[in-house]
Amino acid sequence: MGDKLGQIKVTVVQGKRLVIRDFRTSDPYVILKLGNQTAKTKVINCCLNPVWNEEFCFSIFEPAEVLELEVFDKDRFKADDKMGNAQLSLQPLVAAARLRKILGVASEGTTLRKVIPERDNCLAVDSSINWVNGEVVQHVWLRLCEVESGEIELKIKLIDFSCASPSK
Questions:
Q1: Strand pairing of 81-89 and 66-73?
Q2: Where are the domains of the chain?
Q3: In this predicted model, what pLDDT tens digit does every residue of 94-112 receive, in sequence order?
Q4: C-alpha distance from residue 157 to each of 92, 134, 150 (Å)
Q5: Over the stretch 30-52, which tens digit does the pLDDT of each residue have?
Q6: Where does the record place the C2 domain (predicted)?
Q7: Which residues pair with 135 in a beta bridge?
Q8: Which of 77, 99, 83 is nearest to 142 (CA)?
Q9: What average pLDDT does this structure show over 56-66?
Q10: Are 64 and 92 in contact (CB under 8 A)?
């Protein structure tokens, strides 16, 4: 791990079209991992389109890491069932924040960068990185992998960002 760049606030907004892992439904929750940091949402019982709206803060380091998430179905008497996973590179968010700092872009709602779905990312649709209320914000829909269906909506804000350079 390199120099600390700052912090991000990740909001796990909602899931849609999650897979059935119980008889007719699932009891989903999400585990987020960034480096050695982990966070977990609450369990939403009997729901394939859960709304969490839970916020978590993580420290980010140079080089920008990958945010990983796993979705599980909570089971009472056996191991929790996997409902898919996804990854999001934070490099585009960090690069957009650096660019904004260098260029001094400050007009409200400015799109700093657009990230499109590709084979090497889990984006379900195009994602914009914007300057909103004095913060660099990315809104994403991630397609869950290793599962028949399911998407997770996240909102990521870069907070307490410094343009620290890697140590020499």
A1: antiparallel
A2: 4-161
A3: 998 888 887 776 677 788 8
A4: 13, 10, 23
A5: 999 999 999 999 999 999 999 99
A6: 1-103
A7: 132
A8: 83
A9: 92
A10: no
